[in-house]
Amino acid sequence: MGEIIELACRAGKIIVENGGETYRAEDTMRYVCAAFGVDECDCYATPTTIIISTNHGGEALSRMMRIKKRGVDLHKVELVNQFSRTIARQPMDAAEAEAVLAEIDGAPPYRLSVSVAAAACGTAAFTVLFGGCVTHFLSGIVVGGILRLLLWHLNQIRLDYFTINLLGAAAAAVCGWLFGFAGTLVNWWIIAFAAIMQMVPGLIFTNAIRDSAAGDLVSGSSRGVEAFSIVTALACGAGAVLILLGRLGG
Question: Which of 44, 51, 87, 202 is the most exposed place for a label (fewest CB within 10 A)?
């Protein structure tokens, strides 16, 4: 029984760590337990903690896992979803299930080149939404790729997410200003804002609203605070650069 709740708890942890909703993590834990014949279990997930408890033979068993890192990898969320539903149709032993989960959890993220290319294309697309021209579009490709590389390096040295977003927004503002200073662009702020959009916590904010609407108030509140702190970091980083440039006459 201990192996089963350990397995279920780990499945929920993978979902929350990679941007999944708390209700999805709780449903997945229940699916895993049901697949192994555990029909009565209590599951509780927040962005920082996963808890599962069940009663077996009159003995209460529980497991808690702390979540210390969070990111966005919806492919892993999809794989865990498929795993929980597959074992419901095709039972497997706990050791085999643990091996499948370990493989999912250990799967490498997207290659840096793919991430940089996606950020470059996304930034360029946002320049169009902000009313930019062809020059803005091409400049957005360059700035978006550079910013993604910078964010990757900042993550490698394990800075906290507030500092990463603060420095990222400042770098986006500086890059946009450099294009304007060089005489390439007039409305250089379009480039800066388009680059910052790749750091806006849209998924976190959406999950906060969804969790709050579903009655998961602790999860919804904590995600909302996280989204607000990221937005604050972006505003502080970009604002500090703009104020500095204004005082220097830039």
Answer: 202
Statement to judge: residues 225 and 150 lie in one domain? yes
Nearest to 229 by CA among 163, 152, 174, 146: 163
Of 10, 16, 11, the closest CA to residue 203 belongs to 16
Name the residue among 75, 1, 66 with its Cα closest to residue 32.
1
By residue range, what is the domain housing residue 83?
2-105
Question: Torsions phi, psi of 230, nearest 5?
Answer: -70, -45
d(Cα 74, Cα 64) in Å, to the nearest integer? 23
Long-range Cβ pairs for the range 205-212 (8 Å, 24+) = 207/19, 207/21, 207/22, 210/21, 210/23, 211/21, 211/22, 211/23
Distance of CA 210 to the CA centre of its chain: 15
Q: Which of 182, 174, 187 is nearest to 137 (CA)?
A: 187
Q: How far apart are CA 17 and CA 67, in angstroms?
A: 7
Residues 6+ apart with CB under 8 A from 244: 250
Domain boundary among 105, 137, 161: 105
Domain boundary, last residue among 89, 105, 121: 105
Tens-place pLDDT, residues 123-162: 999 999 998 889 999 999 999 999 999 999 998 888 888 9
What global pTM score does this model have?
Answer: 0.82
**Closest by CA position to 31, among listed 93, 94, 83:** 83
Mean pLDDT of 229-247: 91
